[in-house]
Amino acid sequence: MTERENVVLSRDCKALFVPLGIQVNAKKGTEVTLMQQLGGSYTVLLEGQMARIDAKDADALGKTRIPLPAESYRGPASLAAVQDLAWQHLRTCYDPEIPVDIVELGLVYDCTVAPAGKDMHRVDVKMTLTAPGCGMGDVIAEDVREKLLVIPSVIDATVEVVLDPPWTADMMSEAARLQTGMM
Length: 183
Fold this sequence. Notes:
This protein is α+β, with helices and mostly antiparallel strands and 183 residues long. It folds into 2 domains: 5-61, SH3 Domains (SH3 type barrels), CATH 2.30.30.40; 69-179, Fe-S cluster assembly (FSCA) (GMP Synthetase, Chain A, domain 3). The protein has 3 helices and 9 strands, in the order ββββββαββαβα. The protein has helices at 79-90, 137-148, 174-179; strands spanning 5-8, 13-17, 22-26, 31-38, 41-46, 49-53, 108-115, 121-127, 154-161. The protein has a 6-stranded antiparallel sheet, with no helix packed on it. Strand 2 and strand 3 form a beta hairpin. The longest helix is centred in the middle third of the chain and has 12 residues, at 79-90.
């Protein structure tokens, strides 16, 4: 989506004010302006404030939820396949203020997949934030965790937000710097 779109909510849904991460109830009949649709979630203007609406509430915006890569995956749940899917899912996670995924932003420091019993896996992610006091940090980390748990055979996922080393724009990929006009 490249253009802003005004939408009237068809039902009540949860929204999180950005960047504070404060949860509010967006009421049916409220008009919002759709700013971006990335990774399945939506950034909207709600009552003059930027807010994030989760993918599970896409229908309230008149949109169809975008499936994650693992939802159509039919191959074996090998360690290598889970590792590949984990990175694909990480690329569907966004800071609601920045139209670049967390991998391209350089926020993911480590993603480790390990056996967790017969044909089961666990995924451990270490990531950072663009700013230490980001109110959306817990929201982004939970988004990562939930998307990892959708992967077949993943029974546990942990996301640790670390602030050392601190994030700098140098950690962004070249494509991310181009997209954000930092190059």
